[in-house]
Structures are given as structure tokens and as C-alpha cells.
Fold:
Amino acid sequence: MSSDETVSERPSGVARTLVIGAAVLAVLLLGAAVGLLVKLPGSTSSAAPASGSADVGFCQDMSMHHLQGIQMANIARDRSADPEIRQLAFDIASTQLEQVGRMKGWLMMWNEHEQNVSGVYMAWMNDAGIHGHGATTPEAGKPLMPGMATTEELTKLRTLSGGEFDVYFLQLMLRHHTGGAPMAEYAATRAGQSVVRTLADNMLKSQSAETELMKDYLAKRGAAPLP
Structure:
């Protein structure tokens, strides 16, 4: 074949999107399969946690919280040119995707909805003074869980580039991690299922390390966390 006939092998944007989508689905399915295969205390449906319990509520609400973290991490992997930011984003996305798949697998096993259908998040954290809400979505007027970015903030993130993008991503993700920590802390000590307590505890450990790393990255870039 002559040089004039050579066809570029570089995948198109559509093909790249399909590959990424397939990879995300594969990780979610793997996590769900692991969640279904993990033996929970007891083997009958009567051993499943009740609707509204810390186990069910945590899996529903933390899955939603994680999905936004994954969304922001994927934006960073696409837009940042900084190897540190891209590696951090990859670590967050891959870890949280597996965790979401695991939690959704348990919810399926318990015959529960994958999402909180009441619209009242964190009601399962019913100790006085523990649960609260952060920002609100302007289009719906519904409260978001602590640390969640608004639609406007996500739109702004997509408009930035270079160092400004890296700093804003770190600020949003740091706030996201900090906001989700109380949920994990509560589930790590109050969930009835040992596997849920273990997962919540593992989240706390990994996200605590990432939180300190993001604080260091912000300081190195002459920036501070969001107020």
C-alpha cells in the first residue's frame, strides 16, 4: 500500500467514547458481581437489612455521591495535562467505580432500589446533629448531599483548562471527599452488615489519604481549599 493509501489508525472521538463507556460498564458489572458473590450474614431474604436502614441508605446515597466523583475524575482525565492530576483522577474513578458496583450488587440482592426514591438523602443517619445537607440544585430545588458540586460548578469545571482547571478540580474533589466522609464514618460503625462496615471503613482510609494528597497538591499550586 502506498503512503497515499495509508489510513490513520487513530480512533475517532465516537470510538473512544464507546471504548470508555464499555470499560466503565465492565467495571460496574465486575463490582456488582463481587457484591452479589460476597456471602452476607445469613443466607435467606429475612437476613437482608430493612429499607431505610443504615446499610441500604448508605449503599444508595454513597453510590450517588460516588457517581459524581467519578464524573469529575473522568473530566480531569480528559482535560488535565498534569500527570499528577491524571493519575489521581484515574485512581479515584477506578476505585469508586468498583465500590459503586459492589454497593449496587448488594442492593439488588436485598431487592432494594438502586437509588433513594424518597428524595430525602441521609435520613438513615438519624442521630441528632449528624446528618445535614449542602448546596441545592437550582433546577430542582432539592437538597444535595454534603460535598456535592452544583450544576453550575460542573459547567465551570468543563470550561477551564491548564492550571486553573487542575486547581478547581482539586478544590471540588477535596470538598467532595470531605462531604462524603460523615456517611462513611456512620456506616463504618452503625451498619448491620459486616461487609458494609468493612467497605465504609476502607473508603475512609483511602479517601483520607487522597484528601491529604489533594491538600498538598493545592498548596504546591499556591491555592487553598474551597471555603
Observations:
- Helices lie at 13-37, 54-79, 83-109, 151-159, 162-190, 194-220.
